[in-house]
Amino acid sequence: MAAITTSLPPAAGRSGLSGALVSEWTKIRSVRSTYWTLLALLAVSIGLGGAITAATAAHWNQMSPGDQATFDATQTSLAGLFFLGQLVIVVLGAMTFTSEYSTGMIRTSLWAMPRRPVVYAAKALVLAAVALTVTLVASFITFFLGQAILTSTHHQATLSGPGVLRAVVGSALYVTLCGLFAFAVGALLRHTAGAITTVIGILFVLPILAHVLPTSWYHGLERWLPSQVGMAVSTTVPSSDSHYLFSAWGEMLVFGVYVAVLLVIAGSLFRTRDA
Amino acid sequence: MIEARGLTKRYGDKVAVNDLSFSVAPGRVTGFLGPNGAGKTTTMRLILGLDSPNSGAVTIDGKRYMDLANPMREVGALLDAKAVHGGRSAYNHLLCLAQTNGIGRRRVTEVLELVGLTDVARKRSKGFSLGMGQRLGIAATLLGDPKVLMFDEPVNGLDPEGILWIRNFMKALAAEGRTVFVSSHLMSEMENTADHLIVIGRGQLLADCTMEEFIARSSGQSVRVRTPQPELLAKAVATAGGTAANGGSYGELIVQGLNAQHIGDIAFDTGVRLHELTVVRASLEAAFMELTGDSVEYHAAVPAATGRN
């Protein structure tokens, strides 16, 4: 038996990040769970955004003039994305890393590319690119759909309105950061259910617990909570709720720093731990 | 060439590999033997850098695994055929591995053909049988056309046809001048495959020698003699320093401590007629049991021989 007849051309240099990026792209696009989660992301974002704007349009005439004046057409149309979409992206983000452990694939992956920082960076970059692309698509679709539904109220927003483009792009960016947040927690815990539960706890349960605190404390703490970022970045009509927050990009920066720190910690642990 | 020097790995209090030094040379199949829990898999994980040793080092052609420019082109390793994402097709599984080392799609198609998985290349691997999964794992090791190949228990759970296929494959790889390092706790399997043996027990090196040396070294080497005058011969053998035990039937003796030539001379000198004089080679199995008898991690509890009222 000729064990290996080969058409393999000689190596063209040292294996590194470029190969790892192509590999991770193949990985993420070759499993069904990616398509299901991204489809779910589009469905809940557009579905909920459409439903809320439709309900608002239907009840517009019953709303008080005060409510009508402070109505944020942009934020309402994006609510599905930054409120429910973040839940879905958390699943994709966590599983990008944890599925390597639940399937045992990590041992095969690290045989092929033992330089772990390269593997880690490639995974995070590919996830970020995929998540940002899909969330931007979701964001623009749900925005335009919502504004079309709100035409009857004559309060619909346009992209050129103050803060509107920032809200549309920022919401996508926020949800992408949620995905990377879950990715880092997944790399820390190496367990799918544990990672998803932890991230949802931080994004959803932490703010509820924070509300139990005395009001003055809460107002001091609020701006540091990741869950406020989606609200802050999608707001185009300032309301009393947002007085205690940083600016939209300020909130984004806070969350960005959290995610970056967590990514670095998880990455350095991944480098040194036994796989 | 794989070289381990003073390799030690502890998990908590438990020492999995203890000051292990050996080298694996090219051009032959080196069997890596030991009872379950002896530290074979741990050693292989240390070679690949999946775990880092507490002390000691292991190199591939003088370099740490993680420092190899293109790891898959140097080492093909299959530690666990189930270490794949079952939702991915065979083709995409191999493709995502190949891409990390800049290996093209043509090579992916080629190795699929080599292991006979072309027809199921687009099927998700979770539906694969044990044998197909093993072939997929081996296909991955061949992607980079590596000089060193390492398999952990490759025939575990395979049917006879699969075992034969893998055995021939390993021999062919070694015949091409590659380094083939294969672990097993199945002694009979190694007897048919390996040229050289590295035996460990409880994480420590017990033997590093050729297959022939390993068997010869064991005290299980004996000579079977048949004679119409067994009492006479037994006495003469005892005088010469050997031991003779009665065999299965009258006239049959199993002699230990003397070689066949010596026994034949004794018989001639004492005027005993011989009907048979056969060297009984100890099987690898027996030699192994003898060597690792004390180093088995978990002994089965011996059930109480007598009942109680």
State the gist of this model.
The complex is a heterodimer of chains A (275) and B (309). Chain A is mainly alpha-helical and 275 residues long.
What's the helix count of chain B? 11
Helix content of chain A: over 70%
Q: What is the helix fraction of residues of chain B, given as a range? A: 25-40%
Helix-strand pattern of chain A: HHHHHHHHHHH
Biggest interface, chains and residues, is: A-B, 43 and 50 residues
Please provide the count of β strands of chain B: 13
- Radius of gyration of chain B over alpha carbons? 24 Å
- Calculate the mean pLDDT score of chain B and round it: 89
Structural class based on helices, strands and sheet pairing of chain A? mainly alpha
Strand percentage of chain B:
25-35%
Low-confidence stretches of chain A: none
Commentary on this structure:
- The complex is a heterodimer of chains A (about 280) and B (about 300).
- Chain A is mostly helical and about 280 residues long.
- Chain A has one domain (about 20-270).
- Helix content of chain A is about 75%, strand content about 0%.
- Chain A has 11 helices and no strands.
- Chain A is globular and about 75 Å long.
- The two termini of chain A are about 35 Å apart.
- The model of chain A has no long low-confidence stretch (mean pLDDT about 95).
- Chain B has 2 domains: about 1-215, P-loop containing nucleotide triphosphate hydrolases (Rossmann fold), CATH 3.40.50.300; about 220-280, 2-Layer Sandwich (Alpha-Beta Plaits).
- Helix content of chain B is about 35%, strand content about 25%.
- The longest helix of chain B is centred in the middle third of the chain and has 16 residues, at about 160-175.
- Chain B has helices spanning about 40-50, 70-75, 90-100, 105-115, 130-140, 160-175, 185-195, 210-215, 230-240, 260-270, 285-290; strands at about 1-10, 15-25, 30-35, 55-60, 75-80, 150, 180-185, 195-200, 205-210, 220-225, 245, 250-255, 275-280.
- With about 300 residues, chain B is α/β, with parallel strands linked by helices.
- In chain B, helix 3 (about 90-100) crosses helix 4 (about 105-115).
- Chain B contains 11 helices and 13 strands.
- Residues about 300-309 of chain B have low confidence and may be disordered.
- Chains A and B meet through helix 1, helix 4 and helix 5 of A and helix 2, helix 3, helix 4 and helix 6 of B.
